[in-house]
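Q: I'm building a small set of examples for a reading group on sequence design. Run inverse folding on the following structure and report the sequence directly after it, with nothing in between.
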């Protein structure tokens, strides 16, 4: 299985209402310093609708400004629809919503 396929497999496992960071996904693939590569893989996600890439955020809860499926406003709407909570400054509340497999 190549790196991108590993990324897609782990992201598929993030449950609704939870998020993971790019670094978490990189660590799970066995390439802990590859958080940017995770972002590139998700940007090229060929499985739209099957790999919930909107559930991957920065480690501090910030959303990706270049979210490939419509920008960070769309990413936030998708996450809020799943019950993900946000802080007053617009970040995902990682204390409540971070996925810990």
């Amino acid at each position: 299985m190549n790196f991108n396929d590993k990324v897609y497999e782990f992201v598929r496992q993030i449950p609704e209402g939870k998020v993971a960071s790019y670094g978490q996904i990189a660590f799970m693939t066995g390439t802990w310093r590859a958080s940017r590569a995770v972002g590139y893989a998700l940007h090229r996600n060929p499985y739209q609708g099957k790999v919930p890439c909107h559930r991957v955020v920065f480690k501090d809860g910030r959303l990706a400004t270049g979210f490939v499926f419509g920008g960070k406003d769309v990413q936030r709407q998708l996450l809020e629809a799943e019950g993900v909570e946000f802080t007053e400054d617009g970040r995902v509340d990682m204390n409540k919503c971070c996925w810990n497999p």
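The beta strands are 20-21, 56-57.
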